Each structure stands twice: as structure tokens, then as C-alpha cells.
Amino acid sequence: MAEHTGPTRLGGLLAEHATRARHEPSATAPLVAPAPAPSGPPSTAPAPAPAPAGAGAADVAVAAELPGVLPVPWEEITGLRQQVADDVDQLKRERRQAGTPLSDRDLEEVVRARVRSRVAKWAGQWSLTHKPLTADELERLRGEVFNLMFLAGALQRVLDRPGVEDVVIDGDQMWIDSHGKPREITRSPFKERAQAIEWVNQMAAASGHGERLLSYATAKVEFDLPDGARVAATLLTENLTIAIRRHRLERATLHDLMQWGSVDWLTGGFLSAAVKAGLSIIVAGDMATGKTTLMRALGREVPKSERLATLESEPELRLNHDDPGQHAHVLAFRTRESNGENGAGEVTLADLVPISLRYKATRVMVGEVRGSEAVAMLEAMIAGGAGSMCTLHSKDPESVVDRLMVPLARAGLSDQAAYRLIASAVDLIVYVDAIDETSMGGQVHRFVSHIWETAGRSEGGGVALGQLFGPRVGDPRARPTRTPVSERRMHKLERKGFQRRWLVEHPDGGWPALELKGASA
Prior knowledge:
This protein is α/β, with parallel strands linked by helices.
């Protein structure tokens, strides 16, 4: 194929998919959500948004109705897709040469027209030696060819179901995790291993990663689908394994998160003011507690006058996909794997920190700190990147600092040097937690449980922490403690609209009732 028709906007098609994901309600509230620093406490706390409708047996049947059950070999479908792609490439070249290039709005209609034409011609030939396809089967075939061009092909119907967050295909089985719902298991949409590998390579090529296709020489590959879903595929497992992760809360703001019950107005307003005031923040939590969702929301609080650099190995923050002018200018940096055995061409997160600052980024956000980038990140917080943020995996609130010490020690810092660096660079540590009750018919409750302020070195030589917000007996969500915020930081918060008297006048904050099916935490 001459020129690839990579993932473009297709008129309103992909925007429609993004909008659907953006506005889909969610019961498992992500993490935190403040409205911009409130002018005063609201009279009542907002109620959590309703959960998306559940998927029943009928939905599982729909998930199974994929190309594998069409009376058409997969090779015929991919062959049609190739013919359509060649037709569209030829037309695009002709239009460019004539000085009238195809617009995004026109491209979708062109593709649909070519799909109809090619399928009609193919169907006539097919019927000479096979049973003719019904009208419904022809419509599904046209849909599959179109999906292979611009969406996720065989898996698009699964990904379009309400609330789907994670899909894992392991051999001939498929696991579907939906927001706040029990896991479903059904068969893979691919009839055989070769078909699944071909799907992976077609989607990788469409994403711009065609130079790294899945094979025994390259046993793993990662790429994005056009709607932003992240795909990882590998041949390193006994069966071919494909994992797809959907970011269904990609567009969430702090205000959204507050409405979903992940934070109350008080904690939300505090975090909003902290970001605007340029405090450096670490967001910590266990797996699937919503760290990235909170980071995205915090990133949207950075003032428009600033420039924010996001540094990631996998694009999850995606703040650069927001409409320009909504918040700070975002430069999205990504790591790069080496292109040879000697590591040539490799760019790590640690490399990206100083690179991003050369582009006059006033703040840096690291998707997740795991290794040597921890030193570079903390040094950037001290050397001009005030207000920078990162996430950190920590299985419990009490181990956040110890967890951060691990990559610092691997980078060669002594304990004393590491503690000194943390105490100097970090202003706040925010811990997010979750209670998963899906196994008993409930939902996942995600919330901020702790906020600490760093207070220099402790008497024992570590990092002194002042707990500003913490849980209460019977309720694990963060409420103000009697620990005062340092005057220097409080003055910064007050300049951004937060009022210290709220911490005293509203000791219980404004959390909605936490309805748990099991015993209270």
C-alpha cells in the first residue's frame, strides 16, 4: 500500500467516539475533583453520578457476533480492506495533485462509498461459488471493513459497549472488565492465532508503528487505537495475549471528580488552589485506584499562562488532546525504545526531564515514577519546575516515602541524600484509595484518603510529614485534621482563593454518604 491512511478525524466519527467516552457516567468515581477554588462552601454536597447501565447476557451475545462468525474467511475481509485503502490512497494523491486535497469531513464519506462499491463487486463474485450473503451479513461485512480502516476492527463492537475499560484476549478466550461490573468471559473474536496476529499488525501500522510488527523476532508491541485505547500484544506467553485498556475518564476535571464523590468540595478546593499556587505534588496509590485520573484533572488546573510538559512511556495523560486554550499549553513527550542491540536511539524518562525544560516548560508531569527518572524529576521540582507532579505506585499510605526511596537508592543516592532531596522538592503527597465491591454486586469507590505536607527533615533523619487530611473511623475518605498548613504554603493557597477558616469551620468537609454493601472500612 502506497501511503497509509492513518487514524485521522474522519469527519465526526472519532470525535463521536471520544465524546461518548468523555461523557459516559461512571459509578466508581475516579479520584478527586474540586471545583476551581470555591468562593464558599456549598450548602449540600453533590451526589455521585449514576452508574452506567450494566451489560447482560444479550451484550455477551453481541460481543460474540464478530467477524469470526461471518461465513467469510478473514482473508477476504482483510483483502477488501486493502482494496479500499488502495482506492482511497489513489484518490488522495489525485486530489493533492489537483490542488483540492480531501478534507477530514469528506474522507469518511469517501471511505464508506469505496467500501460499498468494493463489497458489492466482491459479493457478486463470491455468490458464484458460495452461498450468497444475506442483507444483514453484507451490512456487517461493510462495517467490519470500515472498522479495520479507522477503528479497532474486529474488537470495535466490544470496545463500544458502555463502561468497557479493559479487554484481555488470551488464546481463544476474552476477558472483559467494565466499569463497576463483574468480569465477563467470552470467546475471542479471532478464530485462529494467525488472524489475531494480523489484526495486531494492521492496527499497529495504522497507528504509525508499522516498523515494529508482532513476530517471533519482535515478540511484543504496543500502540494506540484511533480512539486513544492502549494496546499491548505479546508472543511471550503460551498463547498470544492482547490487552486493551480504555481511558473512559480521560476528559474528567476536578469538578467532575467532585460530582462523582471522589472528593468533597473542601478537599477539591484545596487541591485546585495547590496546583494554581505552584505546589509540587506526588499522587500515590495502589493499582487501579485512579492515580492517572487524578493527575489528568490536576493538570487541567494549571493556569493557561504556563506550559506543561507530560513525560510518559505510554500516553495516558493525553492532556495535549484537549481543546487549545482550555488550560496550560501541553507538550506531550514520550520515551523511545532502542533500535538496536547497543541501545542506540533509546530515550528514557530520565532523559526527557531536562529535554522538556529546554522548551520553556514551567511544569513537568511524569506519568509514573519507577526508576532513575525519580532523581531527575525531584531535581526539576527544585530547579525551576515548581508545581510539577508525578504518580507513584504505593500499596498503602504509610509506605509512600519508603517507596520513593527505592528508585533513588537504585540511582546511587544515599539515604540521607534521598531524604534531603524529597524534603526539598515535594510540597504535598496525595494518596488515593479504593474499595471494590463488584464481587458482591456493588461498585468500586475511589477517593482521596490522605493529604500530607512535607515539613523538612524528621528527628530520625527521614522526611517529616504533616497530615492535613486523613480518614476517620468508619469512613476512609479524607477530612481535615487539626494539623496546620505551614504559613508559607497557606499564604500561597490564600492568594489562589482558598480560605484557611474552611478547615476549622467544616471539620467533616462535604462528603456525600458512603453506601457500602460490606462492612465499613
